[in-house]
Structures
1.
Amino acid sequence: MKNVRVAIEGLVGRITLARPEKKNALDRTTADELAEALFALSDSAATVVAIDADGTDFCAGADLAALEQMLDAPRQAHLDDAQALGHVFHTIRRMDKPVVALVRGRAFAGGAGLATACDIVLASEDARFAYPEVSIGFVPAMVMTMLRRCVGEKQAFDLVATGRVLSAEDAERLGLVSRVFPALEFDTRAEGFLKQLAQTPPPAMAATKTLFYKLDTLGFLDGITAGIVANADARSTQAFRDGVQRFTSRKKGNQ
């Protein structure tokens, strides 16, 4: 891989966008490598996956130089190119491990889309988020499916129609960001978060993530029914048995 690095540190799998000279802009190669990295970590011993970036910006969006070279390409070529990034978003959602974006600097356009696609977004206080595609006659197309779920219709349309830039604090207030950490503490705080999340029993995390996104397709009663099944299935796992026994043992010891 030339645009992405992959590493496993204990139980944390890490995917790093490695095009700082391009502000980690997304082209077809980068999208394909992201998908490849996600698949590799899906089958690894890692229990949580982090996506971060080299340089001062998380990702400034699509590689416009690469898009310029495609201006006269046939429509199928554009569909295939868009599909590559859509495949990344879909893969993140289907993985049974949590995927965490670590955002410093700018996450604009496709970069904001990549962060939005992740299950959790940790942002440095200096991070900035925007969906400015309309300003160049483009459409923030794939991200809207996720953005509407994060912030609701009115806020989502405001963001994609105006392209306004959000501070990390504003993004957290709207629901785009899970947690904001001080810039000087970001690395330490983010690593602590990842290590803690990685300790969650994998069967419980997988069942939680699967049900969480399955609820998108279900009505209220069907959602409750799916929850009943997931609840009962979880009780049959060794992780649940061990967790209950640890809790009751501690409680008895404190009496």
2.
Amino acid sequence: MKLPELETLCAVVKRAAVEELLPRFADVTRKIKGDGSIVTVADRAIQDRLESELKQLWPEIALLGEEMTASEQAKRLARPGAGLWIVDPLDGTSNFAAGIPFYSVSVALMVAGEVVLGVVYDPARDECFAAIKGGSARMNGLPLKGYPAPDSLRRCIATVDFKRLPTSLVLRLMHSPPYSSQRSFGSVALDWCWVAAGRFHVYLHGRQKIWDYAAGHLILEQMGGRSCGLDGAPVFSAGGEPRSALAALDPDIFRQWREWLLTG
């Protein structure tokens, strides 16, 4: 299968976000899903928009979206066909609904069990991160340049989602943090991209789903960044099982972070 043009995909994602999300920002009807998370009319509107436009351009590629039912998601993952779009239409819904400008749209293409294209768009900052497997990562069409990391884990800025981590690890991080300071902004897809850009130096998340990380993970990977799960295995799982993740752009900082987490 010939891969879609990355520039065309970026244009589709950006246009949908600008037209479906920005007019609804902080002024949107919301509901609570069965798992306690928020879903808004914007989530559904942009997923429907992306599904329609992607199907028009690339009809042979099916779509897996966060706002589908669990049974439909399982069917799509079990039979991905020639290719499968993996879409998080609004990553950071709680931020979006509360008027916090840290949210994104994430679209990845999986072919033969691996992600080959990824786009993450931040409408609030008009930053479009993108990558193709085997190529370079880009931001707004230009090569992404990661800020250099400090020379020691002790001087690093971390982004850590505490609520999905084992209690023992949370307590260890609280009482003996190995980094300089910590943030948690609420969009997994953007977390991966900000690590790829060197804005965060180390990353930790206890449980994220395939639509959360598929595109961002590829972008970090194409920047030469490193990652693994808390079990030491690769983060990406083509079967869609939720995965933990630790990551860093700098190889030596990743080694220090991994050793602290997995051997401490």
